[in-house]
Amino acid sequence: MFGIAQAQSISQAVIGNSGTTLSNASTELNFTLGEPVVGNVSNATSVGQGFWNGAIAEITLSNDDFELINSTSVYPNPVIDRITITFEEMNNQTFELKLSDINGKQLLDESFENTMGRKEIDLSAFSGGIYFLRISNQGSQSSKTIKLIKQ
To answer: Where is the Secretion system C-terminal sorting domain (predicted)?
Structure first.
C-alpha cells in the first residue's frame, strides 16, 4: 500500500524587533530590523527590495565635492622638517588644518585664508612617526585627509 505524505507549509513572515515607515512627498521606505534586514523602497519611478545592512541615504555629488581633493597637494612626504601645501585655483578661500598623531591626539588646529596659493607648516618639533593632516575648506565644507610620515 502506498501512503500519501503531505509537506509542511510555512507562510512567509518577517520576525523583527523593530521597524517603521519613513516617507516624504515622493518616496516611501518600509523596513523591519531583525535577522535579516528586509525592506522595500518605492516612488513614482522605481521599486527596490532586498536585504540591507545599515541606513539608506540619498547623496548627490557634484564637482565641488572633489575640488579640494583634486586641487591640493602636500609635499614632501615623507617629511623631515617642513611640508608645503599647494592650492590650485582656490585663492581667497578659508581653510582649516588639523594635525593629529596616530592615536588621534590633535597636535595642530589652524585656520587661514589662502591668499598665496600655498601654505608651509613646520613639523621639526614633532618626533618621527605617522601623522594625519586634515585640510578642510570652510566655504564648501569639503575636506581631505593625508597620511604623513615624519622622519
So the answer is: 74-145
- Identify the band that residue 93 occupies on the pLDDT scale cut at 50, 70 and 90: confident
Cα–Cα nearest to 131, from 87, 95, 77, 85: 77
Structure confidence at residue 143 (pLDDT): 84
3-state secondary structure of 69: helix
Residue holding cell 500500500? 1
Round to whole Å and give the CA distance between 98 and 12: 53
pLDDT of residue 128: 94
CA nearest neighbour of 87 among 130, 136, 132: 136
Contact 148, 130 (CB under 8 A): yes
Q: What's the pTM value of the predicted model, to 2 decimals?
A: 0.57
Among the listed residues 69, 144, 147, the one whose alpha carbon sits nearest the alpha carbon of residue 101: 147
Cα torsion at 146, 124, 95, 88 (round to 10°)?
-70
- The pLDDT of residue 98: 94
Q: Is the pLDDT of residue 131 over 90?
A: yes
Residue type, 132: F
Rounded distance between C-alpha atoms, residue 151 and residue 149, angstroms: 6
